[in-house]
Amino acid sequence: MATTETPAGIDGPASDALLKMGRFFSRWEETPDGRAVFREGGRAGDAFYRNRWSHDKVVRSTHGVNCTGSCSWKVYVKDGIITWEAQETDYPSVGPDRPEYEPRGCPRGAAFSWYTYSPTRVRYPYIRGVLLQMYREAKQLHHDPVLAWESIVNDPVKRREFQQARGKGGLVRASWQEAVEMTAAAHVHTVKTYGPDRCTGFSPIPAMSMVSHAAGARFINLIGGVMNSFYDWYADLPVASPQVFGDQTDVPESGDWWDATYLMMWGSNIPVTRTPDAHWLAEVRYRGTKVVSVSPDYADNTKFADEWLPAQAGTDAALAMGMGHVILKENFVDRRVRFFEEYVLQYTDLPFLISLDERADGTVVPDKFVTAEDLAAAGDPAAAGQADPAFKTVLLDRHTHKAVIPQGSMGFRYNDQDEGKWNLDLGDTLPALSIADSAGYDGGVTHLDLPAFTDPTGAGSTIRRGVPTTTVAGRTVTTVFDIMLAQYGVGREGLPGEWSAGYDDARTPYTPAWQEEVTSVPAEAVIRTAREFAANAEKSRGRSMIILGAGICQWYHGDTTYRAILAMLMLCGCQGRNGGGWAHYVGQE
After folding, report:
1. How far is CA 333 from CA 136, 337, 341, 466, in A?
2. What does the alpha-carbon distance between residue 514 and residue 567 come to, in Å, rounded to a whole number?
3. Which of 199, 349, 413, 512 could covalently link to 523 via disulfide, CB atoms 3.0 to 4.6 Å apart?
4. Which residues contact 164 (CB under 8 A, 6 or more apart)?
5. What mean pLDDT is predicted for residues 109-137?
6. Cα–Cα distances in Å, from 55 out to 78, 82, 497?
């Protein structure tokens, strides 16, 4: 576009001068009027860009520093330097009925070479400046490094000074020699003064660097110290998993999200912590799967959700107990869902017998599981000749009212006599889920005093509620299920005690209204979600899923919070089903 006018605010002669200066520094052939320019050199100006993307070879790798997503990447290398990376696209197909895994990767991986060669990458040891200065001064007085360290930590003023400097910056670069010497001196002093078990080692993600992890672990073990795992440091180990299942994070791959027909994200921000697999969550909605997010903030994953339950941070247990209250009442008491009942009878400990203990003050509390050893002590022929009887739990046959030792418990796993009896096949036994289900139940009831922590200060109290009981092996017993109903506050006709007056009873623990005052999630939302979760599991035979994350682990009593959530899954027959159960991931794991 040509114009004879000078732009506003620009003096004509001044602009002409600028143009002439430009021609001086960049010479070219042009028409007399300056409208056309003729330049030679072809694409020489593109050399920078061609050099930027040139490479000698392509290698397959992954970005495995504290990330077990293990996405496959093509890494382009020139002269031994990473120039750029791209996602591999040769993952095997998973079939025509579901989305593919690839391309797997995330923006952090695409920029990984930037981190590798970043000037801010830590390559040298850094020590808190105030401590390093103290150590150097101590070395002037004490040639022995151990004595130098001892003079610092045994001086209360110096010790307080360098400890209070933590978290305030002030790190300065030190030599490897100085850093290693100080660390060694600290270990020797600690072992000499307090014992080797006061030395604790820690290493992040051993699978990412086995050699360095093994070297550190060997050192700590050889001196008699304590070796912690990265789980201990990050506090993201789901302790409830081995407590409930006996396995550690034995959960499905992300492709199983596609099989879920009702999906909850609870304490897991999928787009951030499982970036390569987040597409499954976005895609499963197109199948009609409802997605619910439980998060105290409007997190990235909440954008995927059809419904958001904004529970206050740290109150997830109350939310889960409120949902469990609804599930138990509507699917096990008001009506009995056959699929749920068959599942919990075979795959959970709900029908197993618990003995009750009467204390000196007259209160009665749950004691321990009734075992084959207890039956043998009482002369019950069902326990005759049993190996490892102390580890075989007992239930009550619904038709005969007799104690039965079902196979599959721990006592069947470690002796030759019970080889082949590890599975949970009940055979002809139909367990009584509640003592009241047994044909021989005579109406016995016992008051239990159950713990409650309803005071905002955390002070404990008790709630007295009745459970149906009978006598087995000379003991007053009830079932785990009966105790569970009492703990959740789900009453049944004829049982005495302090029970909730309904879902809107905010004074009784674990009702939807009670949890609302704790979590801020409306009771109506809890009732609706619990009903949808259970109804979907009933119709789909267990394809309700909860994706859990370390957002819950890292709170006090995270194990009990997890167990309240896991209870929902087991009550609805979801655990162990494709598209159902818990899917727990720590970061990208």
Report:
1. 72, 9, 11, 15
2. 19
3. 512
4. none
5. 91
6. 5, 9, 77
